Amino acid sequence: RWIATESAAKGTHSNIGFLSLPGNGTVKALYRALGVEFMSNSDFMNEFILPGFSRMEQAERARCISNIRSNWNDYRGNEAIVNSLKRLQFVRCGVTYRTPPECLDPRNEPLKKLFDGQNLFPEAEVEEAVIREYFEASESPDVPERANQHSSNSNQPQQHWLDFLRDLGMQSHLSRELFLRCAQEIHEKRHVVNAEVM
Fold this sequence. Notes:
Blueprint: E1 2-5, E2 17-20, H1 25-33, E3 37-38, H2 41-49, H3 58-70, H4 72-75, H5 79-86, E4 91-93, E5 96-98, H6 109-114, H7 126-136, H8 143-154, H9 161-167, H10 176-197
Helix pairs in contact: 3-7, 7-8
C-alpha cells in the first residue's frame, strides 16, 4: 500500500510506503495509474498519527499537538480528530497530564478560586518549551529558525492555546457538575480537618 499526502510520515508502518503529494498533474495521474492512494492531512492524522500518540516520546507529542493547533482551522471540522483529541492526555496541569475535558479554564476567576491547588488548570507554555528542547537537541543547522517558527506560529492569537483546549471540551464555566464536585471536595476537606482535630 502506497499513500501520497502532504503530511510528513513519522515512524514506521508495516507494508505501507509514503510519498509526498505531487503538485504536477502528470505525476498525480501516474500515481493513480500505479494505485497510489491519495490521503488528506485530516485522514492521515486520524489514521496514522493519533492512534499511536500514547506511544510517542513527550517531544513528539508536543510537536504533534503544535502542528494540529497551528492548522486547527483545517482540523476542527473533523469530528473523528476532535473526538480523538478529547480522549488524549496531552494537557499538562501541574504534575499530571489530563484530557481537555478534564481541565478548567484558568481565565475563569471563580473556577480558579474554587479549585486552586487541584492541578486542573493547563500550563499554557509547556508545549513550547518541549518543542524548543526537541529542536535544540537536533543536529540540523536551521534549529534556531525552526524553533522560533514553531514558537511564533503557536503564539498567533487565532491559535491561542486555551481557546484550542476550550474547543476540545475544556470547562470554562461553573456547571452543575462542577458545583457538586466542588461541594464534595469541601465536604471531604472538612472531614479530614475534623478528624485531625479529634
